TrEMBL record:
UniProt xrefs under InterPro entries: Peptidase_M12B_N (IPR002870)
Taxonomic lineage from the root: Eukaryota, Metazoa, Chordata, Craniata, Vertebrata
Keyword Disulfide bond: yes
Species of provenance: Lynx pardinus (Iberian lynx)
Name this protein carries in UniProt: Disintegrin and metalloproteinase
Biological process annotations from GO: binding of sperm to zona pellucida; cell adhesion; integrin-mediated signaling pathway; male gonad development
One Pfam family hit: Pep_M12B_propep
PANTHER family: A DISINTEGRIN AND METALLOPEPTIDASE DOMAIN 3, ADAM A DISINTEGRIN AND METALLOPROTEASE DOMAIN
A single Gene Ontology CC term: plasma membrane
Amino acid sequence: MLTGVFLTADPETSLLQITVPRKIETNTDGEVSETHVTYAIKIDQKVYTLHLEKQSFLDPHFLVYAYNKSGTLYPDSSFIKGHCLYQGYAAEVPKSVVTLSTCSGLRGLLQLENVSYGIEPLESAAAYEHMLYQIKNNKTEFLPLQENYPTTQVVDQSYRILVKSE
């Protein structure tokens, strides 16, 4: 299901939308490959196809050491979760960048040309529902997110959500 419910937000923030991303199976031989994943997501009544490739910020040989109850140091791989960080693009938008974590739902940023969106799972939702919101940046000294652009900006935004029935 890709249909969304639109929610109104604080007048100075952007429109919110509830959406249900759909994972598209791209492998036809039956084997599951998590190196590349594809999702379909509806934003403002238009479906976008997100092509994502697994990325790693840790070396494949990275080790975490811990102490057991007797005080002995040992390598412990349980601290490293399954790798779930992806980067990619929206097929319908030539100048797009998508950076998502898929560890527990989709969480991250989508930049479709000069419009940026944040996405995060709704914790209490029974379905695979996600909150999608536009990130407004009125500061002209910052460039939009671009592939290989080293600067990160975090903006705190609060919302008042009013659900309208149609």
